[in-house]
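Troubleshooting log. The previous structure file for this entry was overwritten by mistake, so regenerating from the original sequence record. Sequence copied from the archived sheet and checked twice against the printout by T.R.
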Amino acid sequence: MQKEISTVLKNLGVLAENPAFSTGNLAGPVSGTNTITSFSPVDGKEIARIQVASAQDYEQVIKTAQEAFVFWRNTPAPKRGDIVRQLGDALRVNKDDLGTLVSYEMGKSLQECLGEVQEMIDICDFAVGLSRQLYGLTMHSERPQHRMYEQWHPMGIVGIISAFNFPVAVWSWNAALALVCGNVCVWKPSSKTPVCAIACQHILAKVLKANHMPEGISSVLIGNPIGDLLNNDSRIPLVSFTGSTPIGRKVATAVAGRFGRSILELGGNNAIIISKDADLDMSLIGAVFGAVGTAGQRCTSTRRLIIQEDIYDTFKEKLVKAYGQLRIGDPLDENNHVGPLIDKAAVDMYLKAIEKGKAEGAHFIVEGGLLEGEQYGSGCYVKPCVAEVENNYEIVQEETFAPILYLIKYKTLDEAIRLQNGVPQGLSSAIMTLNLREAELFLAAGGSDCGIANVNIGTSGAEIGGAFGGEKETGGGRESGSDAWKGYMRRQTNTINYSDTLPLAQGIKFHI
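Regenerated output below.
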């Protein structure tokens, strides 16, 4: 391990005098008495016990956030952007420590975790520029001496519910944009990675305190009941949820039932089409990293390879050889490619998926299974595996958050696109081809139905400059770049009459 985890926690400011960490807003500890324990999937050791927020704590935090919003929405947007700039600078200083903590608490490779913190820095940089570009439009009125325009206003409190697999980046995608737009944030992180959330809160808290900002601009509340409280609270105009499709469906129903707004980033079942005109060596890198990176626990992980029949056997042979070279072990050792799954429940899900696949007829060309031995003592390390399947198998239609890769054969590009689109989810997709016509057809209206469609790169990984999200059971939400900021604001249309009469729209005459 690069650093002792106790040193990392101390550097990040999350060590407490007592055994339990505190959560809540910037006012300090909350009053809840229940705790949860965070265990590392790397070695099975306890990281910390964390205090769980109560309903009373929630109420206190929301009231403080409401008060902070009145101040924050009236703070000029460029000043809000400068606060976010300082957050980005603080993340630069803490990049190594935060990346190490993410790797140890979540289990993915240190390189990936440092990349995740870099995403946080990048979105802060993006948001700084955005703070001077919250543009509205001006429109020509049909009435003389009238001016029409639109402007964008902050919504209020943004609830952020994030998942374990990106325990810090997804929060930053939402928080950086929400803050520059004039909102305040209440974050409910995954109970599987709470220490990462506390570290982020400490980093931002220092920035806010140094700028004499009021309490409540950013808060963290830990514990599963917090999600339901956010979803059903009419004081929370927007809830951004990242997680599974079944839970996302419940979130959407609850929030819509009170006429709130939700941003949903749900399941993925992502495919790479590998054409006979592909660069096979480049395709191999994209396929393997997409399938085994983060131990298959990304929403953008590659679940399916749809391979043209003329090169199917050749590519399969390359793939099996590559899988034989994978190094599985401590993710803090940069020589390893694959770390553990998040916990033993995830291992159980992985093993059941393999059993179900075999029962449906899947032929495993790279066998999976639980790894045992002293170096795998946490019980969370598994073998990435590969199976030949049909796209209509029930297990293939589902998203399994584990390193299981399915191979499917195709003849024509039309067939490949139908297979690619033939699942309930619609997040990320890719085609590997040097054929311009194939690439353009894949990106055309009749091509990929996903929110992300790539040519000659894999499904996994996205830059913050583009809007991130997907269609169908992926939820339709968009985060990060492009004009995703509009999702965190309310639009208002304004008309100003500077004439000395009151003409009505559509030429209506009304006399008194």
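The chain is about 35% helix and 20% strand. Archived copy saved in two places this time.
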